[in-house]
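Section handout, structural biology tutorial.
Before the tutorial, make sure you can parse a SMILES string by hand: atoms, branches in parentheses, ring closures as digits. In the record below the ligand is zinc ion, and the chain has 450 residues. In the tutorial you will relate the predicted structure tokens back to the input. Do not try to memorize them.
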Amino acid sequence: MATLADHARAQTAPALETLRRLARQPSVAATGEGIGECAALVGRLFEEAGARVAVHTLPGAAPLVIAEFAGESGRTLLFYDHYDVQPPDPLHEWTSPPFEPTVRDGRLFGRGVGDNKGDLVSRLAAVRAVQAARGRLPCRVVFLVEGEEEIGSVHFGAYVRRHAAALRAEGCIWEFGQRDVRERLQVTLGVKGICYLDLEVHATSRDLHSSLGAIVDGAGTRMAWALASLKDPTTGRVLVDGFYDRVREPGPRELEATRRLPFDEEELKRQLGVDRFIGGLTGFDAHRQLLYAPTCTVCGIESGYTGPGSKTVLPRRARAKVDFRLVPDQDPEEIAQLVRRHFARFGLDVSVTLLGGERAHRTDLDDPFVALVSGVAAEATGREVVVLPTSAGTGPMHDLAAAIGAPIASIGTSYWGARAHAPDENIRLADFEETVGLMARLIERFAEVA
Ligand SMILES: [Zn+2]
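Predicted structure of the complex:
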């Protein structure tokens, strides 16, 4: 008799065709290209598999797809994915065109195959494998698929609050997951938040002759002062009053798990092109800071003249973009307010606009769901599994966790060489097949929990 693993293997080839179909459909959140079409296609893929599908909309937002598969038990496993992708630029650096998914050397190349259309399809294939093996799913499975992940999940919080009842679940698998350089599958339990600010200084009514610099400060100088006031240059500590008040330090279990993670300091420095980390941090201290410390980064500055040669000008206006990566329990709106107060206190007339905010989230390492997911991953792959208490990146995990109150873990089809967001984005076909089997097993085991 065919086992679940046999059914999962049998699903891999048709799933690969489904993935090619999905990856051929552009869905660039940044420009809006193909977003509506892709949402409709995702809805059709779920309908073809027997799900009840709702495609929701909000004014000015990319559609949100919720697909529900009924099951024997009342328990619900929720999958969070996104159908949008990063822009494919620079186009000339792709070996094959980004929206013509192509297999080479056991890998599938194309924009979005790794981030995260491959994950989405591997999970759908797992549902089909379990359906084929036993007729009916042993638990409910719900897919939540958004179309704005790559632009900061702008409307995700509003969507999730509105449809919280449909998203009720006892556990959630998040969108991403990779195999590290030693081929160990990573299970990630958290993300940082973000507070993204647009700063503007209007110093004078127009650009002035810089001889007036004797009596007037230009916008460029004022912006430089404002930015420099945010951070201690030696330690990197953020100097905004109250910034650290709500920071929840990592617990002993999180630190212990972090110590077990690989952290190749020299290799990382080589990759990043730096010879030291902020504050001269080394070893575990640097790793701890990467995962658990909030950040302050000037992402861009614009003011005055930067063309060839010299132009003596006192610029009227300066603009900067600054992001703060937040940790639990910092609140982006509050951070924006603290920054406004900080500038005001130093007499710096800077207008501060909050462009986007998300709170950080970390699932409890001791939650039984974490043991279930990492246990199934180890069984299904026969390899060591690495649990990361958090990623250094950001995603809308807090919004979803707040709405469903269930543990969230991220595990997926990707690997160390997947080139997400870059030209020649790819996944390995063997990883794709492995993930289909793993997810099918997870659905079965999740349903068995009393
Ligand atoms: Zn991405």
